[in-house]
Amino acid sequence: MATAAAAHKWLLVNVQEAGALRSLTLNRDVWAHDAVRALLDGHFALWQRSHQSTDASAYVAYYPASRLPHVAVVDPRTGERLAVWGERPDEVVDRGGLLPALTAFAADHVCEGGALGPAHWADKAPEVSTRRGGGGGRRRPTRRRRRPRKRPAPPPRPRRRRS
């Protein structure tokens, strides 16, 4: 995830079952396609693992994957899984479905200049407030400081009698 965050790219996760026809087809028809490669180079960092690897086991423990091959987009800063493909029994992960979905995701989410997030966030400049002037931005309401409570004096201790 650190590599994807440093490159300002979304983490594209692919957990596969080695030797399974659907996984082999995904490698041959989707990941090797020129248009998909160009899209990956510009917006995504591909993290591909076999379901038997320890990395994939840790991923599946955190993000449930009911079917293989599993394809998902994860935010590399927060670890939130933003999109997933191939989870429904009737859904086939192929180039015809995945390429338009990844293209739409890349169009709707920016990853330029370190600002990973929905595209509509890029248009809004964050409001910054400083206490040293400079104006602009929104200021927080100040809180009144509470005075420390005075504790009542403890009752006097009885004196010990000496015998």
Automatic annotation (TrEMBL):
Residues 121-130 have a biased composition (Basic and acidic residues). One of its GO terms (cellular component) is nucleus. It comes from the Eukaryota. Residues 1-103 form the UAS domain. Gene3D superfamilies: Glutaredoxin. InterPro entries: Thioredoxin-like_sf (IPR036249), UAS (IPR006577), UBX_domain-protein (IPR050730). Residues 116-163 are annotated as: Disordered. GO terms for biological process: proteasome-mediated ubiquitin-dependent protein catabolic process. Residues 137-163 have a biased composition (Basic residues). Pfam families: Thioredoxin_7. One of its GO terms (molecular function) is ubiquitin binding. PANTHER family: FAS-ASSOCIATED PROTEIN (PTHR23322), UBX DOMAIN-CONTAINING PROTEIN 7 (PTHR23322:SF6). This is UAS domain-containing protein. It comes from Porphyra umbilicalis (Purple laver).
